[in-house]
Amino acid sequence: MILVTGGLGFIGSHVAQALLDLGEECVLTRHRSGPPPAFLRPAGRVAVEPLDMTDRDAFLGLGDRHPITGIVHLAGVGLGALDPIDELRANTSGLLNALQAARDWGVGRICVASTIGVYGGVRENPLREDAPLPPGTPHTIPAFKRAAEELTSVVSGETAVILRIGAIWGPLGRPSSPFFAIPGLVNAAVRGEPCTAYAGDGIDALYARDCGRAIALLQTTEKVHHGIYNIGSGHATTNAEVAAAVEKVVPDAAIELADGRSPDAPDENLVLDTSRLHGDTGFTLAYDIEAAVADHVAWLRRSQAS
Predict the structure, then answer these.
(1) What's this model's pTM, rounded to 2 decimal places?
(2) Tell me, what DSSP letter sits at residue 139?
(3) What domains can you pick out in the chain, each with its CATH number?
(4) N or C end of the chain: smaller count of CB under 10 Å?
């Protein structure tokens, strides 16, 4: 049975679905009590537990109620939800509780979420897991994730897998992102609202369903050969490609693209090297940009109708 902290959140829900598709049983935590969404309700295979991840006793108590053999730790305080010090304190406490639970329960593997943001300042492209990370970071999220990677490696050693997650979008995600344009372009088109972007800007974007499957494979694959894995598509998707895909399913989409790249864009669109992920799990994309946009538009329309 796999514990997914934050298992009813954006990425966590897709990880849970992918684990269920692989035949696993799951324990999913959420900060507030409530039933899982309909697509996560196969009888007897999903347990939902309300959990404050900073509560050590409550966290460890999960192991008394469930035969947990693996952990995917995704839970964290939301962006800007707390003062930076309180945010770091909560996320560090949650991480340490997850690491202690993994040790106390003797789990075979704990996967811990990190971010593409840890590569800030790295000049090589594509971004490789073994690239040296320059000192310093301007934001609490990559700062914490860098520290979390080190703590996880020290405490959990060979049972730990670090997930450097790229730009993820799709069902249950935010309608817009301060980091890349794809969610905003798709959501605005479905709402019938205008949206602008630079045609040449792009990022290594991965559809949420593919992201969930990649993480589930890393959790369940019998043997992994590395401690850190990039979770991405392995190529950059430009806003021009997104707009073309959107217009195929929303012909009247009011997307206005400016030529070239935005003034504050990096010199080139950054890409995650996903050789490790492909080599150790056999993961391949199920959704190219056209299939992803079509699926997400359909999901958004169903959500609006319900």
Answers:
(1) 0.95
(2) S
(3) 2-166+207-231 (3.40.50.720), 168-204+234-270+287-305 (3.90.25.10)
(4) C
